[in-house]
Specification:
By secondary structure, the chain is α/β, with parallel strands linked by helices. The chain contains eleven helices and 18 strands. The strands form two sheets. The chain has a 15-stranded mixed sheet, with helices on both faces. Strands 6-7-8 form a three-stranded antiparallel sheet, with no helix packed on it.
């Protein structure tokens, strides 16, 4: 069995979709100590640590690592954000310490998405990452394209190319300009390293280390016929293109239902919330779908903490889902998805269909009546 430890939910489901491509039986869990289905090939554990404070994140990671000591597995992979949001170095060092590994290889870049690392700098489509929308991320804003600066690394991290000698100890970040570079890294990496990276690194890891064979039919064009109705599309992403898309849908008279703006520390007005729920119900009745998001123009003026907004949305969505009867729930944004599932006490997902890279449709063992599709905010694909 392969075990992946991921720091957010959409990252976990993204690798679950890749597992499906490679004919693996996949299970995703947010909970420690759950029963793992017999025959599972790929177990992905979402720690949700990217949404925590650093000290809390390390404690949670250590609990997961303690749990998996009792599981039978062959390979271990740590999934991190491809643009290095979260506590990448701290969590990797902690995992190395607990597992007794002396060295790790971090391959975060994804050349397929135009995300590359060259000469110590991170680029998105050949533009320095600090000049892209990631510079305004509300929780992990990128203010420099220098990778070591992005990581806040202080001497414990080295950036190398695959032509250089791999050190005996420590964390190495691999420079990557192409998929060929990725595969060369997997070919030359020592057997005793902890592999850390994004989806592109996981694909190479499956092919080189686990010898998994891709289902070639996965590349055939498969027509997605659309979500079952009625459906809810929930956008919790602060990625610029996501915000612009919601605004464009609203201008095009799509059924966008902006959540009532919540003032920090205060309860939302019950009358206003009731009227909002009535609008959502009307949208589901007449359009068989509703699009839910915060109005970012209003939210930005109120200087509300991302964690407060995320938790508020999760609470409201939990109440709404208790009152509605829907067949599909689509959530954009890993932290938002994690919060909503936590409020609904959904601990396990079964990936069944990869609609696009990173866009994974799952069943919920606890609630088989609803399909759930999860999508990272910075990834394309916006089928409604």
């Amino acid at each position: 069995m392969i075990i992946v430890i991921a720091d957010d939910l959409t990252g976990a489901t993204e690798l679950g979709g890749i597992g499906l491509r490679y004919n693996l039986r996949v299970e995703i869990t947010n909970q420690i100590g759950v029963s793992i289905a017999m025959g599972t090939d790929l177990l992905i554990i979402n720690t949700d640590t990217r949404s925590m404070a650093l000290a809390e994140a390390i404690v949670q990671l250590e609990k997961v690592l303690d749990w998996i000591k009792g599981l039978s597995y062959t390979f271990l992979f740590k999934k991190v954000d491809s643009v290095l949001r979260g506590y990448v170095v701290a969590e990797t060092v902690a995992q190395m310490s607990v597992t007794g590994v002396q060295r790790a290889l971090l391959l975060p870049a994804n050349p397929r998405l135009g995300r590359t690392i060259r000469k110590g700098k991170y680029y998105i489509q050949d533009k320095p990452i600090n000049e892209t929308a990631f510079s305004s991320d509300p929780e992990f804003p990128v203010k420099s394209a220098d990778v070591l600066t992005m990581l806040g690394a202080q001497g414990e991290v080295q950036i190398k190319s695959h032509h250089e000698v791999f050190p005996k100890k420590g964390l190495v970040i691999g420079e990557l300009s192409s998929e060929e570079d990725m595969h060369k890294w997997l070919q030359i990496a020592p057997e005793d390293v902890l592999f850390v990276g994004g989806s592109s690194a996981f694909i190479a890891f499956l092919e080189h280390r686990t010898k998994s064979v891709k289902n070639e039919k996965a590349d055939e064009n498969q027509v997605f016929t659309g979500f079952k109705r009625p459906s809810l599309y929930v956008c919790g992403s602060n990625y610029e293109k996501s915000i612009q898309r919601i605004q464009a849908w609203r201008m095009a008279n799509e059924p966008v239902c902006y959540l009532p703006v919540i003032q920090s520390g205060k309860m939302i007005d019950e009358g206003e919330l009731l009227r909002w729920k009535e609008r959502v119900n009307a949208a589901l009745t007449y359009h068989q779908k509703a699009i839910i998001a915060f109005d970012n123009e209003l939210v930005s003026k109120m200087d509300l903490a991302p964690g407060f907004l995320r938790d508020s949305m999760a609470k409201i969505m939990n109440d709404l889902l208790n009152e509605l009867s829907i067949q599909e729930l689509v959530i954009e944004g890993g932290a938002t998805a994690g919060a909503i599932l936590a409020h609904r006490q959904i601990g396990q997902l079964k990936p069944l269909e990869e609609l696009a890279p990173g866009v994974i449709r799952c069943s919920i063992p606890k609630d088989p009546e609803i399909w759930i599709t999860l999508k990272p905010g910075s990834y394309p694909w916006y089928m409604l």
